[in-house]
Design a protein that fits this description.
Radius of gyration: 30 Å
Strand content: 25-35%
Number of helices: 11
Helix content: 10-25%
Oligomer: single chain
Structural class: alpha+beta
Distance between the termini: 91 Å
Length: 699
Amino acid sequence: MNRYLLFFLLTISPSLATFGQGLDRNVEERLHQYFNEYKHPSTHFGTCKLDSFALDHQRRKLDIYPSVSFGYQPFTPESVEQIYGYLKNSLPGPVNYYDITIHADGKSIEDLVPNYLRKKQDKSRVWKQVYKGNPWTKNISRPYEAEEGLEGKHIVLWQSHGKYYIHKTGEWGWQRPRLYGTTEDMFTQSFVVPYLMPMLENAGAVVFTPRERDWQRNEVIVDNNGSGIYQEVKSQKAKWETTPYAGFALKRKTYIDGQNPFREGTARYAPTEKKAEKAFAQWIPNIPETGRYAVYVSYQSLPNSVSDAKYLVFHKGGVTEFLVNQQIGGGTWVYLGHFEFDKGTNDYGMVVLSNQSKQKGVVCADAVRFGGGMGNIAREGQTSGLPRYLEGARYNAQWSGMPTEIYRRPDRQNDYADDLNTRSQMINYLSGGSVYNPTDKGLGVPFEMTLAFHSDAGFSETDEWIGTLGVYTTNFNEGKLNSGISRHASRDLTDMVMTELQHDLSAKYGRQWNRRGMWNRNYSETRLPAVPSMILEILSHQNFADMRMGHDPNFKFTVARSVYKAILKHTATMHGTDYVVQPLPVTRFAIEEGSKHTFRLSWQGVVDMQELSANPRGYIVYTRLGHGGWDNGTYVKNNYYTFHAEPGLVYSFKVTAVNKGGESFPSEILSAYHAKKNEGTVLIVNGFDRTSGTATYES
């Protein structure tokens, strides 16, 4: 009996082996066919194919490894279910009943679904600890709080490249070519500076950029070391003394490599007081030209510095108060805001630091800077000759007091590479020691994400949109960020930004905006930052169809609002909190004459059909008197406002909408005037009610 059984097994074994080999070949053919034909319905990530697979019949398991490009697409719970469903239906039985796993980007595709779409979050890529201290800066004159916006969050942006020194030619040059009326070095600023940064700040965020953000060519510095008018007033209990650490001093007009203006002077400090009688320091600039200037302050972070140092900025519109956390970020320029100043020296043009605080400690006074200024970093005897905002981050980092290793490579002969690395290294130095970057030594500023805004998404020989490309990096530092969380948090950020952009731009323009792939690449701007980071290639500055859109201010507003919303939602996901989107600007703004020298302002709030949470909950009316500046605003609950006008004075107004997510962009500006001897009413109607892109010519 055993002989017959043995003979039977020997007879059928070759048949089983042949059957198994045939099944494996069949599976391989089906997999090749599936991935060769695979296309995503809304993402142009290129072609893909099958790289390899592992079929284990004994364990009834199939592991599939498509080409790298398969991981460039977005994954949702629905799309993952569809991919597995279609794939199983294409496989021969019994393999379609096996445990099948598709691997992409170092994970199973179900693990690549971003956290905001999951019922159960991947806790490895959300913050384990969050910052709970006072923000770096806070405008306490602002008449609203963005409790469900980005209040107190610290966000980093940079607007691609800038002009840099080319050692091979001995000249300064742009990092990108001049095309379609601009160069990327300038073009990306037209999105970031006037649109995206204000949106984030209107949501309560503290926004930092390693490049200069002020387009003002003039620069005035007032310092305790002899620049401008610096004054101190002591109280009975508090007097000003020199700190034991170096401070800022303006010793020269231009700086060569390695010279640090924040290591050449001194700074002053005074103990804090809670009573009304207080000591203060004040900086009075001699403004060369009436205009709008950014205001930066500097100080030293001392062992007993307070986190609520009070600064008062006196400007044409009144006084705006700030609290600055001097426990972090000492020894560099700290941005407060943009303000209007008159030419010359004026009582309403100065910055004052008070020693009044709720905390026991000291406040520190160093330099104050008004305006962005011209580039003053010389390379081989030459400066760029351009305003600082057009230069690369490398030079702004030196002017901002960064150590030489932050902005300079050892060979000192490649400013292009220096500039690329400076953007990230400057952020890591500033954030070192914070809860989000505990492993680096630095200034403790709690930056929690970075976004590099570029416009080099490729090109096409046909007249079609190139669209948006995203880049992030996971294959570095064992797949972890400096806080210990997974670097796939950067993929989540990239996915959210690109999803939001495609949705909003397609809805706005009635044609699907091209979404390109999400590249997991080894790029400096996404590899080096200690926190979640991405490169956004918003479109192609090399492509005519893209640039036809890119020069349109309406397009820029939509792009910026979309990116702001994605950052808001990503931050809420990382913190496990709810969010509210700031409102859209009001419409139908009008002024009507009332009785007894009164005027009535009225407007309409706008419902955002893309974001139901963005409904207005109140409004802020800003007032400007004559040729003065704007005040800090008055909150009103209703969509109208009545004011009394003094005869002989011109009043100007603008209105914003607010909710728990922040403040909208302002309305247009309307003005009203009552003559001292009124003989009638004149109504002036503004017929210019919209903007458009530049005209184009095609040959």
